[in-house]
Amino acid sequence: MAPHLIIPDHIRRLGTHPSRVSRDKERYRGHFAGYSIESHYQPIISLTHQRVVGYEALLRAKNSQDQPCSPLDLFGRCNSATQITQLDRLSRALHLMNFKFIGTEGRWLFLNIRGEEIRQSNMDAERIKETLSLHGYRPEQIVLEILEDAVHDELLLAEFVQAFRDAGFLVAIDDFGTGQSNFDRIWKINPNIVKLDRSMIRNAQQQPRARRIFPRLVSLLRETESLVLIEGIENEEEALLAMDTEADMVQGFFFAKPSLNGIDREDLPIQISRLHHQYALQQKSGRQNFHAQLTIFETMLTACSDLIRLGNSFESCCIGLLTQLGCRRIFLLNDEGYQLTQTIASDNSAALARYHPLQQAQGANWARRKYFQRAIEAPGRVYISRPYLALPDASIDVTFSLAFTMNGQTFVLCCDVDSRSVDAAGNLLQQGQLIINLQ
């Protein structure tokens, strides 16, 4: 059933004058400086739950000739800070009033808050909660979305966020990854949700380095006790990249565009199901290639250690392993982590002049490295590290390591491998420590 006509005093309580609002059938419109303003809503989706869990409210404006004007341009036409505040509050009032028309029970409404609104005079969260109750909203239904970079006073922003969190609202920080965004600010602000800027998923799609880091960035943000929402997803490849992270929610044209009624695409459930199927196939193929590579290096590392036990020279023992695709270098450690041998490098390991001081590694101590620690903890098993910046050429590698005994002493055989030649699925090496049984 359509909501009743909202009484003028309730509109005033939302921070705008009733004369700026008119009702057109089952919709409220705003009027500002000759422009007609409407609310559009874009679905926010949980890929895990495979359904829409919220909507971001967005301003849409047209002039008297019915020509569209972007929100950025419209705010840019404001002649004063007062006008900016009036337009901002008018748009939020419309979003709240129109959201009741689109049947969204049990879903969040994301409302954008401009930086100018983050001030002491607006921190009476209990008063705002009371106003929203007049319109049928509970605070836990509302996500206040703040553009972090627009607020330069971190203490003020942190105080604002805490006041509204204490009152039961959720707070999202928008466009993380641009401007002044950093983890220190996230720790201080303590939002419920962090929205990753569109540039981050685009960079992950286009740049191998960004692609490798992206899942770990999402994991780190979640460890700050914030949910993560990836916005701006526009194609299937980006959607699959989002699937390959621990992100809690996604948003973008690939799933649904903003609309007056926030109507989900009719085929959205099918599309999400298809995406899960495509991701499963991708992971299955990746795992098969991944484990095939692991088996090769497991076998060859074991054979190399057997040759060492038989008393062959270290250089001759490494020949077969060095020819394996992706192998960069091989070296031998004692049980305290000291490197006993010169590093045997393959043709895949380019000695870069700028890292010359790091090239001599015999006598170096690698005891702090996880590949040494894990091998010592599990003798007779091959351990593979996560990708890391390996010395001496600062390449992104993984290290296979195997602890074995010879003449009553323990040694650790290590082989650095180009991570790209092993991790065909793109993210399997990020998913946890892996020890291969040598049974």
Can you describe this structure?
By secondary structure, the chain is an alpha/beta fold. Helices cover 36% and strands 24% of the residues. It has 14 helices and 18 strands. Strands 1, 2, 3, 4, 5, 6, 7, 8, 9, 10 and 11 form an eleven-stranded mixed β-sheet that branches. Strands 12, 13, 14, 15, 16, 17 and 18 form a seven-stranded antiparallel β-sheet that branches. A hairpin with a 2-residue loop joins strand 16 and strand 17 (409-418). Helix 7 (198-206) crosses helix 8, helix 7 crosses helix 9 (236-243) and helix 9 (236-243) crosses helix 10 (268-309). The relative contact order is 0.08.
Gyration radius (Cα, Å) is 28 Å
Helix content range of the residues, please?
25-40%
Oligomer: single chain
Global structural class: alpha/beta
Overall outline: elongated
Strand content: 15-25%
Stretches where pLDDT is under 50 for at least 5 consecutive residues are 431-435
Distance between the termini: 67 Å
Please report the number of helical segments.
Answer: 14
Average pLDDT works out at 88
Report the sheet with the most strands, covering strand number, pairing sense and barrel closure. 11 strands, mixed
- The count of β-strands is 18
